[in-house]
C-alpha cells in the first residue's frame, strides 16, 4: 500500500487531448501554469499536426511530476503512444483514457480495462 506521503501532494489533474477536450477541462478549472524560466503546464492540446514525439515527451513529463494525481488522455491520442500507455505501471498519476467528441470510446483498446480482464482471467 502506498504511503500517505506518496500521494498527499498530488493536487492537480493533467490532460492530453484534442482542442475541445482540453478547452472544456480548462474551463472547468483544471489548468495550472507555472511562471519563471522553467514554466510548465498540466495540459497539451493535440491536433493532427502534433508530432508523436511531442506527445511522448509530454506524457513522460506529466507522469513524472509529483503534483499530478490523474492524467486524462483522449483515447485516439493514446493510440499514437499505445506502447507507452501499456507499459506504464505506476499507481500515480493514474492514466485514464477518455473519449472525445469526434472519436467514440472503445473499451477493447483501454489499457485499464485490459489489465482488469487479465486479473480476472478473461
UniProtKB/TrEMBL annotation:
Belongs to the V-ATPase F subunit family. It holds the Pfam family ATP-synt_F. Subunit of the V1 complex of vacuolar(H+)-ATPase (V-ATPase), a multisubunit enzyme composed of a peripheral complex (V1) that hydrolyzes ATP and a membrane integral complex (V0) that translocates protons. V-ATPase is responsible for acidifying and maintaining the pH of intracellular compartments. It comes from Orbilia ellipsospora. InterPro entries: ATPase_V1-cplx_f_g_su, ATPase_V1-cplx_fsu_euk, ATPase_V1_fsu_sf. This is V-type proton ATPase subunit F. GO terms for molecular function: proton-transporting ATPase activity, rotational mechanism. The keyword Heme does not apply. It is found in: Vacuole membrane. Keywords: Hydrogen ion transport, Ion transport, Membrane, Transport, Vacuole. V-ATPase is a heteromultimeric enzyme made up of two complexes: the ATP-hydrolytic V1 complex and the proton translocation V0 complex. V-ATPase is a heteromultimeric enzyme composed of a peripheral catalytic V1 complex (components A to H) attached to an integral membrane V0 proton pore complex (components: a, c, c', c'', d, e, f and VOA1). GO terms for cellular component: fungal-type vacuole membrane; proton-transporting V-type ATPase, V1 domain. It is a peripheral membrane protein.
Amino acid at each position: 500500500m502506498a504511503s500517505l506521503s506518496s500521494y498527499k501532494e498530488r493536487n492537480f489533474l493533467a490532460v492530453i487531448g484534442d482542442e475541445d477536450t482540453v478547452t472544456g477541462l480548462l474551463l472547468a478549472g483544471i489548468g495550472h501554469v507555472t511562471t519563471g524560466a522553467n514554466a510548465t503546464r498540466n495540459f497539451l492540446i493535440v491536433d493532427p499536426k502534433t508530432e508523436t514525439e511531442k506527445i511522448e515527451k509530454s506524457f513522460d513529463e506529466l507522469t513524472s511530476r509529483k503534483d499530478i494525481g490523474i492524467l486524462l488522455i483522449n483515447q485516439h491520442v493514446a493510440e499514437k503512444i499505445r506502447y507507452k500507455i501499456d507499459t506504464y505501471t505506476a499507481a500515480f498519476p493514474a492514466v485514464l483514457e477518455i473519449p472525445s467528441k469526434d472519436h467514440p470510446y472503445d473499451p477493447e483498446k483501454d489499457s485499464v480495462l485490459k489489465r482488469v480482464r487479465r486479473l480476472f482471467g478473461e
